[in-house]
Amino acid sequence: MFMTQHGIHNKRTMPQRCVGYESLKRGGLALLIISLFVISPFAIAAPSTLRITLGTFAPYYSPEMVHIGTGTSVSWENPTSDLHTITHDGCKSNDRCAFDSGPLGPNRTFTVPHLPPGVYPYHCLFHPIMQGTLVVTESATPSET
Ligand SMILES: [Cu+2]
How confident is the model at residue 140, as a pLDDT? Predict the structure, then answer.
């Protein structure tokens, strides 16, 4: 009785196992295709906007050091509950003020459109410990360091 049931059970599970394996293979392939679609836009296509996130703790601007091409705009997001600024160091010394967000409130975003090539150190007027650097080079490929 037990043997028969066991036999029947085996006969029933065997094809199911095969189907299960097939669908697992199919699922893996689908996952591979999906992941290719998800990853490739970031790997191949250069995003037109690079996002930097403000933080209460270091790194205060994340990423702190950013290399972008001249075709890329930069967008700072403030998810903290404090006011911050994104102020080009040149604004303080009254040289050439490339960008200054002014007080940026929580959940606000400040975007700087395309900048000419150059090195742009910047800081927060309220918290001088907050410092970041933007490096703009004559290319369209952005990267982070
Ligand atoms: Cu700040």
Answer: 47
DSSP helix/strand/coil, 75: strand
Distance from Cα 117 to the centre of ligand 1, integer Å: 26
Fold of 49-144: Immunoglobulin-like (2.60.40)
The Å distance, Cα 103 to ligand 1 centre, comes to 9
pTM assigned to the model: 0.64
CA of 86 to the centre of ligand 1 (A): 8
Q: List, for residues 1-11, the tens digit of each pLDDT value.
A: 444 444 444 44
Which strand (E) or helix (H) includes residue 77?
strand 73-78
Q: Using only C-alpha atoms, what is the Rg of the chain? A: 26
* pLDDT per position as a tens digit, 114-141: 899 999 999 999 999 999 999 999 974 5
Q: How many angstroms separate the alpha carbon of residue 125 from the centre of ligand 1?
A: 7
Distance 1 CA to ligand 1 centre (A): 77
Structure-token match 């689908």, residue found: 30
- Domain spans in the chain, listed from the N-terminal domain onward: 1-45, 49-144
